[in-house]
């Protein structure tokens, strides 16, 4: 298995801080930031801390969706493992996701927020990978334009491993 570091820990944090500055201008403290579990947990935590440093203290919730399982490609179906804990009716929602790949999870989450009565749904992703066809969702905020490679670290995994790496790696071959 060949690995190549794509972003170091400092660069990851610099990109998250820049994204948080952009987000801070579009949200208020009544916004509900929704972390898409499990991969976005690291990104969401860092974004929330950066927002607090900028004087923004939005509400926080999590939505546990899965379309990959332990596979390297999406199953094409999104399963909801755990719903939101608080209502979003009438609120602006900021969805936080680790990587925009096929877009299935983000589309599902966006549709769920709209069905729950959110007044606006914004999306922020750490990494956006190139995709050969229209995704059906466009991220409002993107920290990093990732290559079309299998990436691990900073919440992104290989069968549940490597999520805790503070940096981003491409993992090629098998």
Separate helix tally: 3
Number of domains: 1
End-to-end distance: 5 Å
Backbone structural class? alpha/beta
The CATH class turns out to be Alpha Beta
Give me the strand/helix succession.
EHEHEEEHEEEE
Question: What is the subunit arrangement here?
Answer: single chain
Uncertain residue segments: none
Q: Please give the radius of gyration in angstroms.
A: 15 Å
Largest beta sheet: strand ordering? 4-3-2-5-6-7
Determine the mean pLDDT: 91
Number of strands: 9
CATH third-level topology: Rossmann fold
**Overall CATH architecture:** 3-Layer(aba) Sandwich
Approximately what portion of the residues adopt beta-strand conformation? 25-35%
Largest sheet: 6 strands, mixed
Topology:
Layout: E1 2-7, H1 9-24, E2 32-37, H2 41-53, E3 59-66, E4 79-82, E5 92-100, H3 104-115, E6 120-128, E7 141-145, E8 151-152, E9 168-172
Parallel strand pairs: 2-3, 2-5, 5-6, 6-7
Antiparallel strand pairs: 1-9, 3-4, 8-9
Helix pairs in contact: 1-2
Briefly characterize the structure.
This protein has 174 residues and is of the alpha/beta class. 24% of the residues lie in helices and 31% in strands. The protein has a single domain (2-69, 78-172), classed as Rossmann fold.
How would you portray this structure in words?
The protein has 174 residues and is α/β, with parallel strands linked by helices. It has a single domain, classed as Rossmann fold (3-Layer(aba) Sandwich), CATH 3.40.50.2020. The protein has 3 helices and 9 strands; from the N terminus they run E-H-E-H-E-E-E-H-E-E-E-E. The chain has helices at residues 9-24, 41-53, 104-115; strands at 2-7, 32-37, 59-66, 79-82, 92-100, 120-128, 141-145, 151-152, 168-172. It has a 6-stranded mixed beta sheet, sandwiched between helices. It has a 3-stranded antiparallel beta sheet with strand order 1-9-8. Helix 2 (41-53) links the parallel strand 2 and strand 3 (59-66). Helix 1 crosses helix 2 (41-53). The longest helix has 16 residues, at 9-24. The model has no long low-confidence stretch (mean pLDDT 91).
